[in-house]
Amino acid sequence: MPTKSKSAIIGRDSLIQHGAVIEAAAIIRDSCFVGYYSIIRPKVFIGCHTEIRAHCFVAEEAHISSGVKVFQFSNIGAGTIIERMAYLGPRVLITNTRKISHGRSYSPFIESVTIGFGARIGGGTVILPGIEIGSNSVIGAGSVVTKSIPENVVALGNPARVIKDINPEEILDESDVSITNRLCQCGLSVCPKFKVCGSKCSSII
Fold first, then answer.
1. 143 by DSSP, 3-state: which?
2. How many CA atoms are closer than 13 Å to the CA of 32, on its beta-carbon side?
3. How far apart, in whole angstroms, are the C-alpha atoms of residue 15 and residue 24?
4. What is the mean pLDDT of each run of 10 residues along the chain (205 residues)?
């Protein structure tokens, strides 16, 4: 059974390195890795077999599915959804509001970003609020993504523009993912023949 505390749930075989901070109501499922001095804010969900490397910041209510890799110094904005098997290179910045409210009387309007299944985001990329990156797409290093990107393409530049389709052999299909990454939305492993763990859940994350 996962270990529980008043502040977080951390699953079996997960490694939390020195200086990392896991805040209230965060959920980290089995076999995860959180690197040195990373900060996981309240109500974040991290699915099984996901790696958050050193000095990353994951803001409130972000949902990171299973088999994801997030490399050093990345910043994931509040409410971000990162789907299974996605890859974020170092220093990726995901923003979530177009108005900076610092010192003002209004609250910022949050526009969550979605990174699709198997998408790969190059290091140093900036993703603006409300953007969707399609499944399997590749964003070139240092890009600034100002508009949503469809699935199965390569996009790069400032602003990022689609330059070509990805090679067919690079398209990752969910049926190709190993059983260790086939998970119910609750984080429990499920047999490939079934879509849920058999409890109250209704979909795979």
1. coil
2. 26
3. 18
4. 65 94 93 96 94 97 94 97 96 92 83 96 98 97 98 98 95 64 48 43 43
